[in-house]
Every structure is written in structure tokens, then in C-alpha cells.
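> example.struct
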């Protein structure tokens, strides 16, 4: 059985103070905790959906790169939206950022997120590039 290994993710805040890890690996997979539209100080980057969504995806990218993976290797993604009406904009942003490297995903709306003012959270699982 593969051991769980915590991944240090430069550029993301210290999540241990909130009792979770940003990313772990197990075997050939990286598991990224739900990422939101916050910077490394846990400050919300904008009150608007677009900048928050781009930040959440960029935070996923940072975690995956620290684990030896990338956005193209995502095999599953779960997206939580405060307002499901933002899903169309999220899909456009995904196409802009990920191109054709899309992944199976689930999108849930009407979700209360961890901090007031957060509009999106993105959780991902990806394969790790093998040397």
C-alpha cells in the first residue's frame, strides 16, 4: 500500500493552522485540497468571481507542480460554487487556462464556503509524472 506523503507547496499559505494539508501524494497520485480565490496570506483576491476562479485554479496548479504533476494530469476535479450561475464563467476560464486538457468533474452550486466572500473552491486529483 502506498504511503501518504505531505507536499510542501511554496506560494500557498500554511494550511496546517487550519488543520488540513494543501496537497499529499500517495503512489502515483497527487490529491489537492480544495483551493479558493485566496492568496498565500488567505486574503480573498477580489470580490468578483473571475479573479477568484483564476486564483483557485492557479493554487491547484501550484500544488500539483510541487507534487511533480500539472493541470494536464488532473483525473478528477470537484468544483464548489456559492452561486451555480457562475458555472458558465468557470467553464470559460477552465478552457482559457487548461485548453483541451480537461478532466472529469463535478460542479455543485449553492454552497457555503469556508470564508465569507468566497465564491469558488476547486479540489483535484492528478497523476504524478514519472521520471
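> example.seq
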Amino acid at each position: 500500500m502506498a504511503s501518504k506523503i505531505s507536499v510542501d507547496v511554496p506560494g500557498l499559505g500554511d494550511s496546517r493552522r487550519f488543520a488540513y494539508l494543501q496537497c499529499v501524494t500517495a503512489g502515483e497520485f497527487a490529491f489537492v485540497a480544495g483551493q479558493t480565490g485566496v492568496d498565500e496570506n488567505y486574503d480573498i483576491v477580489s470580490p468578483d468571481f473571475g479573479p477568484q476562479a483564476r486564483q483557485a485554479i492557479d493554487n491547484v496548479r501550484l500544488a500539483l507542480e510541487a507534487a511533480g504533476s500539472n493541470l494536464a494530469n488532473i483525473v478528477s476535479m470537484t468544483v464548489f460554487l456559492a452561486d451555480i450561475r457562475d458555472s458558465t464563467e468557470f467553464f470559460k476560464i477552465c478552457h482559457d487556462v487548461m485548453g483541451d486538457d480537461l478532466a472529469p468533474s463535478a460542479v455543485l452550486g449553492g454552497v457555503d464556503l469556508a470564508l465569507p466572500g468566497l465564491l469558488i473552491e476547486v479540489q483535484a486529483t492528478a497523476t504524478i509524472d514519472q521520471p
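> remarks
The two ends are 21 Å apart (CA to CA).
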